[in-house]
Amino acid sequence: MGSALRLIGGKWKVPILCALNQDGITRYNELKRKIRGITNTMLASSLKELEEDGLICRKQYMEMPVRVEYALTDLCSDLMPILKQLAHWGIQVQESEYTLNKN
Prior knowledge:
Elements: H1 2-8, H2 13-23, E1 26-27, H3 28-34, H4 40-52, E2 56-61, E3 67-72, H5 74-102
Antiparallel strand pairs: 1-3, 2-3
Domain HTH hxlR-type: 1-98
Keywords: DNA-binding, Transcription, Transcription regulation
Pfam families: HxlR
């Protein structure tokens, strides 16, 4: 459990992975627009860590200006159903809390 949390822990890694899962191959500025509140520094460092850990791949094209695209790896594709189930669980908890507080 600790190694899994190390790989996806923090405020920004899961939103980045979910955005890439939803949109497929995505450029840096597109990710920046999709993930509200993330700074350039946090996006860059999170992408670097996710790449180092094998969860995303980065492809740089030798064009002017340089174009960089990010995508999920097969390793991360195995993680996505787990994250979807976690999101579903979170919704259930919120709904049950709403129901409890309403009564």
